[in-house]
Structure formats: structure tokens, C-alpha cells
Amino acid sequence: MKLDTKPDVCVIGLGYIGLPTAAIIARAGCKVVGMDVSQKVVDTINRGEIHIEEVDLDGLVHGVVSRGLLSASTSVAPADVFVIAVPTPFGENHEPDISYVLAAGEAIAPVLKQGDIVILESTSPVGTTEQLRDMIAKARPDLKCPGRTSQTPDLSIAYCPERVLPGKILEELTNNDRSIGGITPRCARKALAFYKRFVRGECVTTDSRAAEMTKLVENAYRDVNIAFANELSIISDRMDLDVWEVIRLANRHPRVNILSPGPGVGGHCIAVDPWFIVHSAPEETPLIRTARGVNDGKMHHVVASADELVAAHPDAKVACLGLAFKANIDDFRESPARFVASRLARKFGEQIHIVEPYAAELPIEFTDTGAVQIDIDEALENCDILIVLVDHDVFRVIPLAERANKLVYDTRGIWPDQPKTTELAEPDVRLAG
Ligand code: SAJ
Asked: Which residues of the chain have pLDDT under 50?
């Protein structure tokens, strides 16, 4: 890598991590080529536009593209630093799939040269960075690879996971601390020097296996703690307790921090990453595996409870509030809210109404169910039962006066002042609004 000038960078994978990462590296003055297999994505970015929703990303991409610092292509470009940010899904039996990572390695191998740095960012099972190194070593026997030579390696290879929150990606990519795991300490140092060009958070060096496990542990920790909260909510339903009151009181303890129950765990991270650990140590992960079961089971618990409520009021109009996988974003991947609302729509048809301010239209599974999308004002005016599935701020701020006479099933605890009733008010009262 040229030491005196900013390195040329190639980012492989322009999804919701790769594109913001490429744009931020370009903003730091590096010349970046983003590589993606989708011609549509490449064309969109080369027009200075974006294909994903993320706060402020459109302005940043437009700026770096128009300044010639970022361009996109369907093929890799020679560079000094290669950042791999491709998907790492799992298969039917939760088996991790690193084929996209290895395919990225195959794509860059032919253009690698002495002094280059290869960095894997995709969430991966422990040992993946070493597999990537072995694949490159096999494809390029002319290059000395780290960990496989007693001489100074020609390449530096490292693993550096991101830990950004959708909706705050640009801010967190810059300010979050980063774990930088080198195949060797020299690799870690090379990667560190690169990240310090655009990361203000602390960059902590370690080995690649520890960095891979750190990412998985962060999300497994969160999944286990969400499972604890969800189990508490199921126990409270059975014991006729207000779980939100119990958690509020317990969290007043200086060393207790119980997370929030919900209708289950959504998104492409918390529900996925723990399985990578379970797959690596199936006999040693009863807690992590059980937590996954509790969180997935919570969705079915909410479906059963909501089903019972709606069935008991066949004449009532029902509004499901929210389809997104979490509050205030328009991401519906693996969303528990979608799972619950679609089950109710399939069973109760036109009795069900969907309120999702972040969706322009209902997802495909609602087609032919009879359920319709309405806005929150229509729901408050015309619906008798409100089932809160997502804690969007626009729902949270609804004053008691507008929902006091509704029958509410609040899976997110956004309305602690809601009267606890299981009976519908008289029609003239309940729709008084
Ligand atoms: N959830 C609850 N109760 C809670 C917290 C979350 O039910 O108390 C649910 C949410 O509603 C959502 C799911 O869990 O359905 C995941 O939400 P999240 O807030 O964990 O957010 P993610 O998945 O967008 O981001 C996580 C973050 N990881 C951690 O907080 C340890 C983020 O920092 C990671 O970068 C991201 O996973 C990732 O990409 O790995």
C-alpha cells in the first residue's frame, strides 16, 4: 500500500453496511470502487443515488460520487485495501453460509499485489478469516500469506466487524469502537492504520478469531437478555402481573437492567448471529439455543393471545399497529410484527386493519386476506381494538384521551397509563375518540 498517499479501496458488497462504509471511506479522501453483483445497484450508485434507506446516506453518496471519489462496478478493481461486506446468511438448519465471503475472495485474488490489505467485515463464524486466507493462498501461491510464511508476508488479512444500528449507521460507523482482528499482529496494525483514517472510536487490535467471536457474542448477549424479558412477559401473562411495572421496579436496582419484552426478535442480526455460535459448539450452547427458542416462541404466544382477544369480539374492528422489525425504521426483514399481523389477517380477514407509517403498501403475505392498510388517525377513529406490535414514536405519543375507550393489547409497553380492561366499552362510548 502506498504509505504517503491515501490508499485506493475496493469495497465488495454494497448493502446496508457496504455502501455506507464505502461512502465514509470515500469521504475520508480515499478513491473507492464499490463492487456489487447487481447491475441495478451499481447503476443506482453511479447516478449518485442509493437503493437502501438510511438516514443522511443519500446526501453523502451523492457528494462522494459527484466528486469522483466513489464509483461502483460489477467487477472488482485493483486497490490497496479490499473490504468485504457481503451477506452471511444461514441455511435451513441454521448452518452458516460463508459462500459469499469465499466468492468475494475468489473475485479479488487475481488483482491482489504485494502490500495489499484484505479486510473481512461480514458477521462470520469463527475461523472464516483463516478460510479466506487459505483460499487466497491457494489462488495466489506467488504471494506470501500471513500465518503461512516465516518471512514477511506480502499481504495483510484482518477481520473487523461493524456494530452499527440501522438508522444511525453513518454516525456509528464513525464513532463506535472497532475490534480489529489480524491473522497476525502485523496484519492488525496494517488494518488499524487504515481504519484510523475514518474511525473516531477506539480501534482495539486482537486476533481474527477473537474479533469474529466478539461480534457474535455481542448479539448473542442481547438475544439472551431479550429472551429473559420475553419469558418474564409470558410468566406475567399467566400470573396476571403487569410485566412492565415489574421490570420498571426491578431496574431501579443499581445493577439490574432487564430489557424490554416484545412480540419476538426481528432483523437480520440478533435472530441470526447466535446460531453461528451454536453451530460451532452445539453441545456447549444450551443457554444461547434456548434463548432463540424463547424469542421465537414469543411470536407464537402473541399470536395466540391476540387471536383469543379478537375471537372474543367478532364485531369489533381491530388495528394492528406496526409491521417493522423495530421502532422508527422501515425495515421489515424477519419482523415478528409482520408474522403476528399476517396470522391475524389470514384468520380474521376484514376485521383486521394494519397501521404501518413506514410502509407504502402491505407486504405480499397480506394479499387476499381482506386486511387493509389504514393510517393511525383512521384507526383511532374507527377501530375498537388496538394491538401494538411496534414501538414507533408516532404510536407512543398518542394521548390517553384518544385511546382510553379502546381495548388494547400492548406487546411493547408503550402506553403504561392504558386502563387494564378486557371488555369493550359500549359502542357509543368506545368510538367517542
Ligand atoms: N428487541 C426487543 N427488546 C429489546 C431490544 C430489542 O424485543 O429490549 C427486539 C427489537 O424489537 C428487534 C430485535 O430485538 O426486533 C433487534 O433489535 P436491536 O435493537 O437489537 O437492533 P438491531 O438488530 O438492529 O442491531 C443489533 C445491534 N447489536 C447490539 O445491540 C448488540 C447492533 O449494534 C448491531 O450492529 C446489529 O445488531 C448487527 O448488525 O449485528
From this structure: 1-2, 433
Count CB neighbours of 1 within 10 A: 19
* Alpha-carbon gap, residue 338 to 199, rounded angstroms: 36
Ranges assigned E (strand) in 7-106: 9-12, 32-35, 70-73, 81-84
Whose CA is closest to atom 38 on ligand 1? Answer: 269
Cβ contacts of 425 within 8 Å, gap of 6 or more: 405
**pLDDT attached to residue 116:** 98
Calculate the average pLDDT of the chain: 95
Predicted TM-score (pTM) of the model is 0.94
What's the pLDDT tens digit per position in 17-26?
999 999 999 9
Using CA positions, which residue lies closest to atom 11 of ligand 1? Answer: 326
Residue burial 194-224, b: 16+ Cβ < 10 Å; e: rest? bbeebbeeebebbbbbebbbbbbebbbebbb
- Which domains, and CATH codes, for the chain? 9-201 (3.40.50.720), 261-431 (3.40.50.720)
Strands annotated E in 40-90:
70-73, 81-84
Beta bridge partners of 432: none
Pocket mutation for ligand 1, best pick of 222, 230, 233, 391 (most atoms within 8 Å of C-beta): 222
